[in-house]
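User: What would this chain look like folded?
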Amino acid sequence: MPRKKKIDEKVEARIGELEDKLLALKADYFGTALDELRLPRGDLAVVTFRLGPKNFALPLWAVKGISRAVTIIEEGELGPGYLGVINYHDEMVPVLDAALALGAESRDLELGDHVIYFSAGGRRVALAVTAVIDVETLDGEKVIPAGEAGLPRRPFLGAYDQGGTLLRLLEPAALLPDVGGTKSPRSKK
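Assistant: Here's the prediction, encoded as C-alpha cells.
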C-alpha cells in the first residue's frame, strides 16, 4: 500500500487560501450563496457595519465600494424592500433597506449614514446602514454556520464571537427581496 506523502504546513495553508479564493470567485460568478458552497477554512476578510444598535458583517469578496449616504432617488418599480436608487460611478444602483432586509422596522436614510455597494445574484446593489465600522479579518474556522448559531440560514452565513459580542455574518445574495424570482430590481412590470 503506498504511503501518504506528508504535505508541508506552508503548502497546505496556501492550498487552503487558494481554495477559499476559488470558492468566493465561484460564488460571485454564479450568483450563488457562499454558504451553499462551504464556509472558508482560513482567514475571512469582512466589512463590519452597524445597523441601529447591532453589528453585522459582509464578506469582503462581495463588497465593491463604500460611501456616505447621498440623495436616493425614489423609484416605484423597484418594489418592497428597496428605498430607491443611487448614482454610483454613473450607474443607477438599487438601494436595499437594510433594516427591512434583516427583519426590523424600515428606517429612512439619515445624514451621516453609509452605503455599502456589493455584488449579489449577478448584480450590483447598495445597502443603507447606520455606519461602516472597519474591514477586519476573521478566522473562518471560528465562524459558526447559520443554523448552528441559532440564526436562520437566510440571510446569514453564520456568526462570529467578537469579544463577547455576536457578529452576524450576512450572505449577500440572501439579502435581496426578490432573490428567488427572475425579476430584476430595475425591470419594468
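Helices lie at 9-30, 34-37, 98-101. If you want, I can go into more detail on any region.
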